[in-house]
Amino acid sequence: MILHNSFNTNEKGHLTIGGLDAVCLSREFGTPAYYLDCNAVRAMCRMYKSNFLKYFGEKSLPVYAGKALCFKGLYSIIAEEGLAADCVSSGELHTANAAGFPMDRVFFHGNNKTDADLAYAIRLGVGLIVVDGLDELAALDRIAGEAGIRQNILLRITPGIDPHTHQKIVTGNVDSKFGSAIMTGQAFDIVKAALACKNINLKGFHCHVGSQIFDIEPFSEAAEIMLAFIAKIKGETGYSAEILNIGGGFGVRYTEEDPEIDYENNIRMLGERFDSICREYGMEKPSISMEPGRSIVAAAGATLYTVGSVKEVTGFRNYVSVDGGMPDNPRYTLYQSKYTVVNAEKADAAADYECTLAGRCCESGDLLAEGIKIAKPQRGTILGVLVTGAYNYSMASNYNRIPRPPVIMIEDGKARVGVRRETFDDIIHLDI
Ligand SMILES: *Cc1c(COP(=O)(O)O)cnc(C)c1O
Questions:
Q1: Are 252 and 195 within 8 A, CB to CB?
Q2: 65 C-beta closer than 6 A to ligand 1
């Protein structure tokens, strides 16, 4: 196993993804290409579902955050596994609907939904719209009225937590484009406004504290703040929230340096925390949900590239350039995110060649990793970048008019195309 169950080496010393030889896969599907081990995705869905049931209660449901990875084939899997889905744009809603996803199990997010977005969500029968602010509340009340329905909503609340320092730097998160802050009193105001809307049915509250979180502390703090808020609202208005959704953000191990994460234990500890806080306030526990995105798909994904050049800049460093880069994975360029890179043809050989992995764009910042060590490649070698299932394909662009790679779904030892490779004609398809 290399880092996660989906990655291994075979008797030829090749990297395998979901049990299939990466070199053979590259011959069949070309490079660059994204691969997704669907059995691993299903295993994570089942892990969340069974543990939420066990530790959060029978009304709780994990909500898959589609912004991590979104295409029809994946929504089919999420639907089959019985999870709900969170969409953040009409494009994601359209994808879920086209995949036959039950739209009553969809949460619709976003800090700036247009009137057209809201009308589209209502037309598709989206279960819960997560309303971000007062302007949106008024617009939704009007649009739901025009459609002759009463729309179920959650309100997005800003609890004021900075997950990166794990301290309550209250102002840090209150200053956010998302939600309504408890600290400023605006959260309370929007609750009163929502309760007064004719065409809106307030089901509860939502918050999201951040991403790539490795321990339960930020979630636990969010739970505490949100449950205290719910208790205060109950005391002052008599309104009881049915649902509390504390967002996504469970971390993923990208490299050997990242800690291993015991998801089940984290969910168990959080569940206990919810129970004890509810007991403290003498309140009935609302239906608890969370919205994992990254942790469901990241570790099931890998990207395979072909090396085009190995350039040793004397006195400086070695550049290994591949046939992809920031258009298929912008995360190093955006966040200096670290990845595990392997020579897919010598996955069990000593990783002793220090290099920078560069993309093919006309942009010096187009890098995928720096200071990594791999078995020395040459022109034509297949390289694997592991743990690319989240925020790679979903963030991909056509920068430099580079066609986007396909997404290959691997399940039970078989590979099939989930999203086909873009062609040059796709690239000019919209040009008039
Ligand atoms: C990004 C996001 C998520 C998913 O976060 P992950 O880190 O991928 O688990 C869930 N909910 C909301 C509101 C988000 O913005």
A1: no
A2: yes
